[in-house]
# Entry
Amino acid sequence: MTEETTAMPLSETGSGSERERRSPIEWLRDQREHRAHLFLLAIMLLASIAVIDFRTWLVLTISGVAMGAVLFLMASGMTLTFGLMSVLNLAHGAFISLGAFAGGTVLAFWLDGFASSPSFLTNLVAIIPALLFAAFIAGVVGLVFEKLVIKPVYGDHLKQILVTVGGSIILMQLIEVIWGPNEIPVTRPEALQGAFLVPEALPLIGGIVLEKYRLVAVILGLAIYAGMLWIIDRTRIGILIRAGVESREMVEIQGYRIHLLFLGVFIAGSALAGLGGVMWGMYKELLTPHMGDEMMISVIVVIILGGLGSIRGCFYGALLVGLINLYIGFVEPRLAAVATVGLMVGVLMWRPQGLIPVIKV
# Structure
């Protein structure tokens, strides 16, 4: 015990002196190697602020973070199922569309009177049920989808790709049968419309306009991210799931039914896709049956960029994609379409394993 207490300060002192002796270049190399996600995020922020007026940059940054938060909601479910279950679900876009239509039905038809009210509390009567209903419908369909489509092909990625693509086509056709093939306009609830002006008296940021919906998207995305990390890292269910990923047989020997845990993970991933879908539907204010498929390129880029199976990587990857779309779109709109893929290619040439190379969460 004495050796431990005396050794600790020595090691801390040694590490501190090493940090003091390191040159700034060595420190930057260390950040680039061990904190690649933060390093790249800092480079992007600094490079953009150098060429964009500060007030404009701040508005673009908040908008980019909001877009990243919505992307994270859509991509986190696919990251969850792949990272914990090694399941490649290419029908994920269909679950995004399903959630958008389910939530849009609540907002545009069932509770449209509450959504159009000028009262914020009355709007919540429509917004919260829309989010919960979207997650519920996507989760229930995910339960059926896992039983009929995913369960027979566990462990075979090629078959997973084939059957989930087929399942996606079926789900898209069911959406068209239920809601029709035409576009459905969905007006945002009154509380999420418009923007507010930051008081002029505040230094630096005074006078800028911030969109309400984007701020709500940032708050919701951060809350979901924190909740996912807490469940995976701190709860018994998360420990059992991670243990099942490492050794399925060990968990089953302890008396736990690992398949039920994995089923729960797939349902949660589907529900998150539905939640992201309704947020994207409110952002676009227009629902189309293939809107989820249109977002799949960005979702896959986010997952690859962050590191396959990493929730933290998915979060930072979504932020980077959201920010670069807004920055490049402002500086040179013609390059906005290729900015996302270009970012992914650049990162993979630098770090083929992704920014946070964690195959298991």
In short: The longest strand covers residues 195-197. The two ends are 34 Å apart (CA to CA).
